[in-house]
Amino acid sequence: MAAELIDTVAWVRVEGGRILCARPRGKDVFYIPGGKREGAESDLETLLREIEEELTVVLDTASARHVATYEAEASGVPGGAVVRMSCYTAEYRGTLSASSEIAELAWFSYAHRPLVPPVDQLLFDDLRAGGELT
């Protein structure tokens, strides 16, 4: 039997060698902001909805660029589920702030890598290798 696939889209925002991460209410793990696709949403539709819901900003779709797609075993999910995370950069309008579903925002350096799930760690590794993450 094939493992469950959790299909997600994430917004990669790096400033000053640090990446924006969010911790949902009721969880002790930080994630790259974004979330699960609903129905037949495209990557960009999912990204726009999730980032507005989580961070109260509007992404500029004209500036959106696919960074990479990563897959890794989901942590804390029984049965060996796999998370697929399609990552995008994009400019935004508004002021970044945690919504009601987000407990905390933080800017992480590579040293914070152990605080994020395995699929996010793959992005951290690539950003570090590319000189973007300190």
From TrEMBL:
What is the top-level taxon of the source organism? Bacteria
First and last residue of the signal peptide: none
Q: Does the keyword Hydrolase apply?
A: yes
Q: Provide the alphabetized UniProt keywords.
A: Hydrolase
Q: Which residues form the Nudix hydrolase domain?
A: 1-129
Stated name of the protein: NUDIX domain-containing protein
GO MF: hydrolase activity
Q: List the Gene3D superfamilies.
A: Nucleoside Triphosphate Pyrophosphohydrolase
| Residues passing through the membrane, by range | none
Show the InterPro entries listed in the entry: NUDIX_hydrolase-like_dom_sf (IPR015797), NUDIX_hydrolase_CS (IPR020084), NUDIX_hydrolase_dom (IPR000086)
Can you name the source organism?
Streptomyces buecherae
Cross-referenced CDD domains: NUDIX_Hydrolase (cd04690)
Q: Per UniProt, what is one Pfam family of this protein?
A: NUDIX
Work out whether the entry's keyword set contains Cell division.
no
